[in-house]
Specification:
Structural class: alpha/beta
Helix content: 25-40%
Radius of gyration: 18 Å
Strand content: 25-35%
Shape: globular
Strand order of the largest sheet: 6-7-8-3-9-10-11
Number of strands: 11
Number of helices: 7
Order of helices and strands: EEEHEEHEHHHEHEHEEE
């Protein structure tokens, strides 16, 4: 009998090294932490601290130099790119700062795309339902260059949720938006995440957005510490820092 893994994401001493013209450079020091199903996690830190590198490793977009990553029980660190791509298609959704919409497709077609690739039944109906949820059903036939930045990010959120991923990764999801649109996108992201029971891991410079997550991982020079958020959503009473 199969049982669900204890953690949706589990890491054990993961590192990342790259070769530069000046020699080897270690971007991430050994990092170990776990994420339970349904948790919301913010990875925060200055530019160049390693947070986007960490997100890429967790999502299987890049390979660790050493250590282990399990994603919903699957050993990501043992997979080649084709296997990682298959796993991402089955379990993972993405939201990017730059929206990453296909310019030649309408809003509806952009949202439909992951469902079509996954072979889901009636992707157009699923896409229309999600566009309704993000308040853009009236913009379904518009192309990305006909949409505002906030509208494009709402399309991207609908696209990320259409396959009902177990894990959602978001890299600076409000980074290209003004305050008003950023607030709308934040609200929408957490509402959809809660209703879909998705595990959310996001990278952000926005402290207010980070505070809405249950946990915060603080990156500094490739090292990670954890701060328990004191937001109303967070579990626990007192904020605290600890090395992980």
């Amino acid at each position: 009998m199969n049982t669900a893994p204890e953690y949706m994401i589990s890491t054990d001493s993961i590192t990342k090294k790259v070769t530069t013209s000046e020699g080897p450079l270690q971007i991430l020091q050994p990092i170990s932490f776990d994420v339970k199903a349904g948790e919301t996690i913010a990875i925060v830190g200055a530019s160049g601290s390693g947070k986007s590198t960490l997100l890429g490793l967790l999502a299987g977009l890049d390979e660790v130099s050493s250590g282990k990553i399990h994603l919903d029980g699957a050993a990501l660190h043992t997979m080649d790119e084709e296997q990682r791509a298959r796993l991402r298609g089955e379990k993972v959704g993405f939201i990017f700062q730059s929206f990453m919409l296909v310019q030649s497709l309408t809003a509806l077609e952009n949202v439909m795309l992951p469902a079509e690739i996954a072979g889901l039944y009636n992707p157009e109906a699923l896409a229309n339902e999600l566009l309704e949820k993000v308040g853009l059903s009236h913009r379904a036939s518009h192309f990305p260059n006909q949409l505002s930045g906030g509208e494009q990010q709402r399309v991207a959120i609908a696209r990320a949720f259409i396959t009902q991923p177990k894990i959602l990764f978001a890299d600076e999801p409000t980074g290209n938006l003004d305050a008003a649109n950023g607030e709308k996108v934040e609200k929408l992201l957490f509402e959809l995440n809660e209703s879909a029971h998705t595990t959310l891991v996001l990278v952000t410079h926005d402290t207010e957005l980070a505070d809405k997550c249950e946990r915060q991982l603080l990156m500094h020079a490739g090292e990670l510490t954890e701060k328990q958020s004191d937001s109303p959503q967070a579990k626990g009473d007192e904020p605290q820092l600890k090395a992980i």
